Amino acid sequence: MTDDAKAGGADGAVSIELPKPTLAGTISLEETMARRRSVRAFGPEPIALEHIGQLAWSAQGVTDAATGYRTAPTAGGTLPVEVDVLLHGVPDLEDGVYRYLPGEHALRRRLVGDRRAAVTDATLNQGFVRDAPVVLALSAVAARTAPKFGAFTDRLIDMEIGHVGQNVSLQAVALGLATVVVAGFRETELAAALQLAEGERPVYLMPIGWPGATEH
Ligand SMILES: Cc1cc2nc3c(=O)[nH]c(=O)nc-3n(C[C@H](O)[C@H](O)[C@H](O)COP(=O)(O)O)c2cc1C
How does DSSP classify residue 17? Predict the structure, then answer.
């Protein structure tokens, strides 16, 4: 990792510049959909930063600089989704929880250390989450969407995160990786494990890794 790619921000937080996403996959969209399957067994091999960048981009990458709109649609243009990336075993990177910064296509470290055990506990012990070298945590800030949509907000947010989850699922397949969407968790416990800010609600977890042998 170059010094340019890894730098302390003005507030001392570590920022990681991600490799530019590619728009040239090697399998067709149709084949990607046909191959998509929920996988709950992951090998121990780490995932390269290049793939992490591609996965984060598929979740919330900016695809229109003028509006800031993303790879997934957003209710009323309100952009409520936040993506945290739990990284483990990436060469030259400290394990921890990193926030994806769509505008910069970068990661900003929020927490140091392996949080997978606490996160797995919050999922009522869905043990495969603990084995995944990368876990995406998709959360939402309702306050961004509520002024426009009032009582419909949470419903719209859940739909929106469904779009994000599908983008990531298909991107994972296209990279030869495996994942599953996980919504079975205790919300308050997971928010605490991820140290989410007040008003950020976790909606989906996506453990991601190379397909492994043993299902839990
Ligand atoms: C909203 C939603 C929540 C889900 N939550 C979980 C979960 O907590 N744990 C899990 O192992 N799978 C979860 N799944 C994955 C389903 O179990 C899976 O999609 C289903 O078994 C069909 O398998 P397939 O995805 O391979 O087609 C969830 C799927 C959806 C759509």
Answer: E
